[in-house]
Amino acid sequence: MNAQERTARIGIVGSGFRARTMLRVLHALPDRFEVAGVATRNAADREALAARGLPAAGLPGLPAPAYASVPELLDGGAPDLVLLTLPAGAAQPVIRDLAAAGVPVLTETPAAGTVEELAALQRLVDDGACVHVAEQYHLEPLVEAQLAVAASGLLGAVTDAHVAVAHDYHGISVLRRALGAGFEDTEITARRDVRRVLPSPSRAGDPDDLALVDTVHATAWLDYGDRLGTYEFDDVQYRSWVRSPALLVRGERGELRDDVVRTVGTDGQPRRATLERVAAGGAGSHEGLFLRGYALDGEWLHHNAFRPARLPDDELSIARIVADMADHVLHGSTPPYSVAEAAQDQYLQLEVRRAAASGERVRTRPQPWAHGRVCRHAGAETS
């Protein structure tokens, strides 16, 4: 293999749920990724990693090199890039240390906890650090197909979007893309209401009983003047059997509602098309069990680059953000999700929380990352 064909050596910092999911994805794609090692302070996890791996999603893991510190990971594993799966506060000094060592970083969401920390992280990138953020929800297969419809012009100029697919900065990220919004200011109104609902399955399995539980239902309206975005999410919505995700985008010439696209043809007649999920492994299929992609009227809007790996949609989006980061670092490809984009998502969700707490309309202000640098990895070849 030449340098551009070799697998990317990935280091991981942390050994919690997110790290274990990352490991599962990396091990499922050995032709693309090699686990250079995992740095964790948890001695029991290090022992398990070396012997048998860490379980994830109820499935056994695979062994991986384990290190007690980040410097040991860098010295012993020599990763091309590091996936940082620590909470935002704990991640900041580690990001700075990795940047000082010249190691590219893909850090967990949110990028930082406060506006001041977000600005400091952008300054690090402006000074030459290669730091990106593992925001994945806009890359989930259906969501990517839906956003492709919104951006295609098929609906005309987009005027409204209603997104109820993910919480906080994740949902805001999808909403901004549905509206085609960048870093411009917006006026926000929001509310958070406590409600009762049936419990949802957890990471450990189905609920023990069907007694109603408290949940917080969040709603926010982001007014960009010529476009209005509605963010909605229920705390128990992930995995819920009775709270489904929803995405609505309306334009001057049509609308997308979940998987249905409504427009008017050149003949003046109404048209209705459906986003088609194309997958192997159904009745009579002997191809394996994997997603091929999403198509609209026979045209691919999302094509799964990781088939035939057996990965669910959320893990396909994880594979995509890691692959994009690896391609950027090794080959000079387009950078993945920037610190500036992630900072704007987090800033907006912090302002949504402030609007809900105060009961007042909040006007956002320009932030320094809006004109900040996007990482161009120093060691990458330009394409």
Automatic annotation (TrEMBL):
Could you tell me which residue ranges the Gfo/Idh/MocA-like oxidoreductase N-terminal domain spans? 9-130
Q: Where is the signal peptide?
A: none
Sequence segments annotated as region (Disordered): 359-383
Question: Which Gene3D superfamilies has this protein been placed in?
Answer: Dihydrodipicolinate Reductase, domain 2 (3.30.360.10), NAD(P)-binding Rossmann-like Domain (3.40.50.720)
GO MF, any single term: nucleotide binding
Query: What protein does this entry describe?
Result: Putative dehydrogenase
Q: Which organism is it from?
A: Promicromonospora sukumoe
* Organism classification: Bacteria, Bacillati, Actinomycetota, Actinomycetes, Micrococcales
